[in-house]
Each structure stands twice: as C-alpha cells, then as structure tokens.
Design goal:
The chain is an all-beta fold. The chain is 0% helix and 43% strand. The N and C termini lie far apart (48 Å).
C-alpha cells in the first residue's frame, strides 16, 4: 500500500496542499538592477512557519495550508553553465 501524496489529517484524507510564502516586514534585499517586465529567477531559503488544515467552503475538500517565512533570497541563473547569466531575462 502506498502512502498518499499528502498525509492524512486526523484520519481523514487531505485533497491537496497550498503553499504561502511570506517575508519579514522589512522585505528582502537582492542586489540587482532590473527594468519593467524583466523576469527574474529567485531562489529562496525559508522556514516552515505554519501547517494547518482547512475545509474548502466551496468544495468541502480538506486542504493542507503550509506557510513559509523567507530567511534569504538570491537571483539564480537560468543556465548555470553561462557565466554571463545572472538570473534576469530582460523583457
């Protein structure tokens, strides 16, 4: 018997999982010069700050809500083999 993708909660099957990412009140600082419509690739380091289970009012499904609090963030290259790739695609 295989384990469900989302662990059961109080003996009840959980239909899905949601992830919320929050930051500190002061925000995050990443050194980069960006322009409007640029797309950036950001890698975050975060701590799980909360896990809760809620019933979706519309569907009645039990959903696992997980909250991450960001500790640090940095731009990551799209192509790590390219030394000029700094994680920014100019729009």
């Amino acid at each position: 018997m295989t384990e469900p993708a989302v662990p059961m909660f109080e003996g009840k099957p959980v239909e899905g999982a949601r992830l919320k990412v929050t930051t500190a009140a002061h925000g995050l600082e990443v050194d980069a010069v960006l322009r409007m419509d640029d797309i950036v690739r950001v890698v975050i380091e975060a701590r799980v700050a909360g896990v809760d289970h809620k019933v979706n009012e519309r569907t009645g499904a039990l959903v696992r809500h997980q909250t991450l609090k960001v500790i640090a963030a940095e731009l990551a290259p799209w192509d790590p083999a390219d030394p000029d790739d700094h994680g920014v695609l100019h729009g």
